[in-house]
Amino acid sequence: AILGVIGLGYVGLPLATTTALSGFKVIGIETNKTKVNKLLAGKSYVKDVPDDDIASVIKKGSLSVTSEYKQMNKMDVIIICVPTPLKNDNTPDVSYIYQVVEKIKQYAKKSILIILESTSYPGTTEELIMKELENAGWVLNKDFNLSFSPERVDPGNKLYSLRNTPKIVGGVTQKCSQLAGLLYKQITNEVFFVSSVKTAEMVKLLENTFRSVNIGFINEMALLCEKMGINIWEVIEAASTKPFGYMAFYPGPGIGGHCIPIDPIYLEWKAKTFNFYSGFIKLASKINDSMSQYIVNSIKQILDNSGKSIEKSKILIVGVAYKKDIDDVRESPALKIIDLLIDEKASVDYYDPYVKELTISNKTISSINLTKENLKEYDCSIIITNHDNIDYELLIENLKIIYDTRNTIKEKKENVFLLGAVNNNT
Ligand code: SAJ
To answer: How large is the ipTM?
Structure first.
């Protein structure tokens, strides 16, 4: 069977490479020609996919990549991994899925198995794919079979991958479910079937909304602990000693990435169509989004207390990726914090070993080099993303003030202030 993967991004490229490595003949369709050319040159652009995996499947011909949708007519299975972002009005943008369905109508052969992996609200698979194909005269279970299976990989996670993370499958019919299960059983250790396609869509949203709500909660607790002169990080460490019934989340500068900030809004939007208003989702988003301003206010206070005004202060942001040890800056809280600092007329630089350049309100700045001389120039610095490969000793010795949003610097230092802990100077 020839496998088609539509969209070779953070979801599609690992999927296409893993399936090609496990013996499938895979055709990847990617509309971004720069990405296609990189892959053809044996180069990866997704951190979790090594260059030589790409090079070997391309060389062997088990993975072929193209921008041409007409290649769909060679596919027996089509797995849709296109982006599902938000529109400017914060509502779901499912236009990429819609476009793929139009191409399926045009090029795909009948008896195709279609699996949607892109995260979306419950009902998308049936409303957007099944209905569209049936309106075009395609007959379910004859001309096409259709399932939803959420991608559940955690970017940068070394322990869990596609193979050892149970794959959730929900089909429009039993047969659809079984067919998708047959496929995934060959590339993952465990397939977990659910009774409907909406259930499968909801599983993913529950997982990520659970994270957003718990992060919002612990951020609120961090602010409370600051008021009470208690160190939230110590409280979490102690609470985590409970062998059951507690799961640690950590305060931070807000949430980034292409999932956690977005998926709960998909669910909230769908809930509203049932006149159901989720307080948790809205509150969590509000708290998480407010962390950037909170941190800038704390910086202002700390600088004031040391006789400086934030205006004209030189501030260094340490770590701009949306989470540690990866290079992805999408929706990173660092971007918001830099914008807010610039609004306060501070002059802002950043250092991130994974992110060479950053475009902030269409100005491109590049990471500074971490040298003693450079560090001494700054009035204050903020650790936003605590990559493991940063020399924190060098920072502590050479930076006047460090505001730590990730509890990176464990020893108590006069010049180190910690989000969520009593800071004698604030
Ligand atoms: N964050 C906190 N405090 C925490 C955990 C995370 O502030 O306790 C922040 C992170 O800094 C980051 C954001 O939240 O900015 C999202 O972090 P994340 O750990 O959820 O990482 P993602 O979005 O890269 O990956 C998540 C997956 N994460 C885990 O399972 C740990 C998982 O929820 C999904 O499989 C994945 O999104 C996805 O693709 O949906």
So the answer is: 0.93
